[in-house]
Structures are given as C-alpha cells and as structure tokens.
Design brief:
The chain has 257 residues and is α+β, with helices and mostly antiparallel strands. Helices cover 25% and strands 27% of the residues. The model has no long low-confidence stretch (mean pLDDT 86).
Length: 257
C-alpha cells in the first residue's frame, strides 16, 4: 500500500508521527467506456472553453470565481488557510462511539506509526482500548477539511472520516404519510424481527453481483450467449398487512421445526 497522507496525531502534548493508508478497495468490476461503432476506448480531454484546445496538466490551476473574475489558488494558498490541519490531526476531545450516529460516517483509513512514533502510537491505542473511547479531531486531506474519529481496530488505529453537521440534509423534505398500526400487527412485526435476528458476521455477505457479471463476461468471451435468468419474486397475494406478516413468519417457523 502507498501512504496517501503523512503528518502527526496531536494527543495533548504528545505528538505521534503517522502515515495514512486507504482501508478500503472497490469490489465492482473495472469497466471501460467504448464507442459502440468500433469498440474504441473513450478518452476524456481537458479542453479550454475559449479555444477548444486540449490543456496539458501542467497548465491547469484551481480558482474561485468572485465578482465575475477568478482568484487563482496555488498549493501554498491551501496550506496557508490552515497550515496546522494539513499536517496534524489534533484530537480535540474523546467520546463514546455510540454517541456518533452512523449517518456521519464516511471513509475509513489505517494509521501506521512513522519513525520514532511506535511508543506513543501504542500508548494511544492501549488507552483507547481500555477506556472504550474514541478520539475526535479534524484534518485537511486533498484540500478538504474533515472531521475524524480515531479508534482501535484489529490491533491498529483506524481513522474514520465523518461528515460535518452542515453536510447532512434535513429530513423535512422527505414526506412520510401518517399511518396507525394495530397492536397485533406491531407484535407480529417484532416477532418476525426477533426470529430473523442473529449475530452480525460480515463474512457471510459477498459481492455476488460482480461475481455473476464476471461469469457473463467469460461466457460472452467464449462466444456463448448467456442464458436469460428467470427471476421469481414471491409476494403475498393478500393486501392485508396482517396476512402478509403471517405469510412471512410461516417459512421461518417451518425451517425452525
């Protein structure tokens, strides 16, 4: 793995030099866009809106439009905005992880101690494990500030980027018609949930769509015409909610017996 950020964790007066690595990788297939006529690969160009000519990367700068003109920004300007946050993840407070709603979570990263940082790194790791707390701070990655949760994970420190409150849309625009459930319906719904409840095991879930899509690709590569799948979705014939709940419970009861 290649580090995508290097800096330090500020833990009181303790400074822990670290490197940041992506903790995730995509599972979907890498598909190219092609021209339907001759299957030529589609290329994207960076084109000057005035001249229509392609612009090389070396000539591209970033700018912010203000009062009908652009203010051009260089690397030093981004660092000048908050030099400490481009190099230090300052832990501002500690909290219980359950206090942070899942809607705020974004991207996970692995943290690795850099030179001379192992002792302080392990100190923070052990302290978080013993207290059951997580650290909360902020840092700048790729010219964007993010909140960060630092927690123990599988013997290392994990950093989870989390969103600011201002990034979460209000729920007021989502319209949910009011409906009153009968006590018997609610009781049966809870019974169905209880019967389907088990310990969470992420290894039981696989990206089966990508695997099946690869089978289709291999068949087409051999000149075979993949068979059209027969999809059968079974629904309760009754529109009565109570009857649907009863029908949902029956297979579970049979399986248990």
């Amino acid at each position: 793995m290649r580090a995508i950020w290097s800096g330090a964790i500020g833990f009181g007066l303790v400074n822990i030099p670290i490197k940041l690595y992506s903790a995730v990788q995509q599972s979907e297939l890498d598909l190219d866009m092609l021209d339907k006529k001759d299957l030529a690969n589609i290329k994207f160009q960076r084109v000057n809106a005035n001249t229509g000519k392609e612009v090389p990367w070396g000539n591209i700068v970033k700018g912010y439009k203000m009062d009908d003109r652009y203010v051009v920004l260089g690397n030093e300007d981004f660092e000048r905005a908050s030099p400490e946050k481009t190099k230090i993840i300052e832990i501002a407070e500690f909290t219980d992880e359950k206090e942070i709603d899942s809607i705020y979570y974004d991207t996970p990263y692995y943290l690795q101690p850099d030179k001379n940082g192992a002792k302080a790194y392990n100190l923070l790791l052990d302290a978080l494990e013993k207290t059951g707390k997580v650290g909360l701070g902020s840092f700048v990655l790729r010219n964007r500030e993010s909140l960060a949760v630092i927690k123990p994970y599988d013997g290392i420190l994990l950093l989870n980027k989390i969103r600011f409150a201002e990034e979460i849309r209000e729920t007021s625009e989502i319209k949910v018609p009011k409906a009153t459930n009968k006590p018997a319906e609610l009781k049966m719904a809870i019974q169905l949930i209880d019967q389907l409840t088990q310990e969470f095991d992420i290894s039981q879930y696989k990206d089966t769509y990508s695997a099946n899509l690869m089978k289709v690709i291999k068949e087409k590569a051999k000149g075979k015409k993949p068979a059209k799948p027969h999809m059968q979705v079974v629904h309760s014939r009754s529109r009565d909610l109570m009857e649907q709940l009863k029908a949902s419970l029956e297979p579970v009861k049979k399986k248990a017996s």
